[in-house]
Design brief:
Elements: E1 4-11, E2 20-27, E3 32-36, H1 43-51, E4 58-63, E5 66-67, E6 78-81, H2 93-103, H3 110-123, H4 139-151, E7 157-161, H5 169-186, E8 189-193, H6 197-203, E9 206-211, E10 214-219, H7 221-226
Parallel strand pairs: 3-8, 3-9, 6-7, 7-8
Antiparallel strand pairs: 1-2, 1-4, 4-5, 9-10
Helix pairs in contact: 2-3, 2-4, 3-4
The structure holds adenosine-5'-diphosphate (2 copies).
Domain ABC transporter: 4-228
Keywords: ATP-binding, Cell membrane, Membrane, Nucleotide-binding, Translocase, Transport
GO molecular function: ABC-type transporter activity; ATP binding; ATP hydrolysis activity
Length: 228
C-alpha cells in the first residue's frame, strides 16, 4: 500500500487551457478517494498521469514517498480498472485474471498463480466461471473479471475509471456492495472516478471535486453533501 501525493499537477495538451490546472491532492495510505466532476473536467487525464500513461506537464507525483514523474507505468506498481473493462476476448476468465502475474515473468510459480487467481475469483464470486470466455459472461461478471485482474497482484494502489457506468442499476448496486467488501478486506489505497452520487457517498472516505481542471473541494461525503 502507498500514499499518493499530487503536488501542483498541471497537464497541457497543446497550447490550450490546461486540462488539469495546479491540482494538489493527498491520498493517504489505505484511503478511498472519490473523484467527481462534469465530463471533460480532467478526471481521466489525472488518473492517466498517476498510472503513467500520460506525461505530466508540471508538478510532482509522489507515490509511497517516491517521485514517479519519470517512471514507466510498469515500474509504478498500480492497478487500473477501465470503464470498458479491457478484457482479452480470446482468453478464459482464469487467464484474464492471471494476466498481470504472467507479465511479471518468472516471479510467480504456477502454484502461486493458481492460488492467487482462485483467491481473487472467490472474493468476486467467479469460481464457477473460470473456464468461460468474456463473450459468455454478463456485464457484471465481466466487470468482476476486470476487478479480479486488478487485485490479483499486490498493487500499491487501485485506480478505477467509472468502473460501473456500463451496468444497469441493479448490478451497480450489487457491485457497489462488493467493492465496499473488497475494500474492507484489502484496505488498499484507491482513487475512484464516478458520476454516481450514491457511489461517491457510500464508497468514499473523501470526495475530490474537479471543475475545468481545477480542484474545487476535497472533503468527506458528509461534509460535501450536507453543506447548504
Ligand atoms: P474527464 O475524464 O473528466 O471527462 P478528460 O481528462 O478526458 O476529462 O479531459 C479533460 C480535457 O482534456 C478535455 O477538455 C479533453 O477534451 C482534453 N483531452 C483529454 N485527452 C486529450 C488528448 N489526448 N488530447 C487533447 N486533449 C485531450
Ligand atoms: P471520458 O468519458 O473518460 O472523459 P472521453 O470520451 O472524453 O472519455 O475520451 C476518450 C478518449 O479520447 C480518451 O483516451 C482521451 O484521451 C481522448 N480524448 C478526449 N478528448 C480528446 C481531445 N480533445 N483530443 C484528442 N483526444 C481526446
Amino acid at each position: 500500500m502507498a500514499s499518493i501525493e499530487m503536488k501542483n499537477i498541471v497537464k497541457r495538451y497543446g497550447d490550450g487551457f490546461p486540462a488539469v490546472n495546479d491540482v494538489s491532492i493527498d491520498v493517504g495510505d489505505g484511503e478511498f478517494m472519490i473523484l467527481v466532476g462534469p465530463s471533460g473536467c480532467g478526471k481521466s487525464t489525472l488518473l492517466r498521469m498517476i498510472v503513467g500513461l500520460e506525461d505530466i506537464t508540471d508538478g510532482d507525483m509522489v507515490i509511497g514517498g517516491k517521485r514517479v514523474n519519470d517512471l514507466a507505468p510498469r515500474d509504478r506498481n498500480l492497478s487500473m480498472v477501465f470503464q470498458n473493462y479491457a478484457l482479452y476476448p480470446h482468453l478464459t476468465v482464469y487467464e484474464n485474471i492471471a494476466f498481470p502475474l504472467r507479465l511479471a515473468k518468472g516471479k510467480f510459480t504456477e502454484d502461486e498463480v493458481t492460488a492467487r487467481v482462485k483467491r481473487a475469483a472467490e472474493m468476486l464470486e467467479l469460481n464457477e466461471h473460470l473456464e468461460r470466455k468474456p463473450a459468455n459472461l454478463s456485464g457484471g461478471q465481466r466487470q468482476r473479471v476486470a476487478m479480479g485482474r486488478a487485485i490479483v497482484r499486490d498493487a500499491d494502489a487501485f485506480l478505477f475509471d467509472e468502473p460501473l457506468s456500463n451496468l444497469d442499476a441493479k448490478l451497480r448496486g450489487q457491485m457497489r456492495t462488493e467493492i465496499s467488501r473488497m475494500q474492507r478486506r484489502l484496505g488498499t489505497t484507491t482513487i475512484y472516478v464516478t458520476h454516481d452520487q450514491t457511489e461517491a457517498m457510500t464508497l468514499g472516505d473523501r470526495v475530490a471535486v474537479l471543475k475545468k481542471g481545477v480542484l474545487q473541494q476535497c472533503a468527506s461525503p458528509r461534509e460535501l453533501y450536507e453543506q447548504p
